[in-house]
Amino acid sequence: MKILVANIGSTSLKWRLFDFANSAECVLHKGAFERVTDYSKAIEDCLAELKKANAIQSETELSAVGFKTVIARNVTGCVRLDRRVLDAMADFNGLAPAHNPPYLTGIQLFAERMPRVPLVGLFETAFHQFAPEAAQRYAVPEAWLDIGVRRWGFHGASHKFIAERSAELLGRADVVERAQQLYVHGPGNGIMGPPLRVISCHLGGSSSVTGILNGVSIGTSMGMSPQSGLPQNNRVGDLDAEAVPYAMKTLGLSVEEAQKQLTKQSGLLGLSGISNDARDIVNAAAEGNARAKLALDVFVASARHWMGSYFLELNGADAIVFTAGMGEKDPAMRAAICANLENLGIVLDAEKNNSTRGKEAAIHSADSRVKIFVIPTNEELVVAREVKRFLAARNN
After folding, report:
1. Is residue 33 domain-resident?
2. Residue 171 covered by a domain
3. What range does the domain containing 114 cover?
4. Which runs of E-coded beta strand occur in the chain?
5. What are the tens digits of pLDDT across the range 214-237?
6. β-strands 361-362, 371-374: how paired?
7. CA separation for the pair 240, 257 (Å, rounded)
8. Residue 342 pLDDT > 90, yes or no?
9. Model pTM score
């Protein structure tokens, strides 16, 4: 079974081709095109690359094309991308303006190019759909809920990979099995050992923290849109709802200008005044730039806030996991987030932490009650696995 996973950006197309023959999980080919202006041509060129590499002879060899879709109105999970789902994505274009429109364009072009190949989306919201209702609701009128105003959560594929991989590292095959079957059978029972409590910290240009119990999300820092939770690269993160109309009236901003400032000029960029790239901000802070240091301090405080929230909700933690760009590659950021938590049983090994960049490793000290891991995420693999399970469930 060959499954092509297509990651569509506003000006990019990235792909990985997975082969699941004989229960293996083999990447046959991967590639990317940047600065894409013609997606139809990019898709054609992608298929040509696959054929040139002898990964496929024809697109008819593909069992499906999988997409890491972001959000749709009242639709989540791993689903066939039919007209109903595409219309639901379009309804929420305003919540994910950098993601939904290019995905809709790309999906339509893939459908036209290979009409007999199933197109399947694993929504970023899917991993959080089984969280307790109290963790998904805002205190708004019921009519607001009816139009989709709720905590959807994001980075689901990444957090699901962390749920499964951390369970493997902790020797919990029972949790791994239930986590792998989550979207097909629901969270279910069947956990043989004590509860497994993991806090997953996906820290990058876009960041979120998720509490995971027995492989299932119990809540996450992002809410209705990717503009919430921790400060993002250039998106605001959490903000008092009354701040928006106040700023609009006081500064004379239109709705469009307010949205632009909150989604393109805020976050780490707005705080630092330098860049939306954490690496630039780290360098500036090291040179004594006060605003850059403040941006990092605000980010760390927010990450600790959410980590503490799930530590309390889970009644402790068996493991804390750092993943994504900053989580995997920034030892100083990890050290700041874990600083002075010895009374909670969270103790980094400074040497292990400082020597770990972009590779899987345990970075806790010998006397730390809580394990601390760096685990590079693999969202494309999660999408491919879930598309495979979706196809298998449909054919049974």
Report:
1. yes
2. no
3. 2-123
4. 2-8, 13-19, 26-33, 62-67, 78-80, 119-122, 197-202, 208-213, 216-220, 319-323, 361-362, 371-374
5. 999 999 999 999 999 999 999 999
6. antiparallel
7. 18
8. yes
9. 0.94
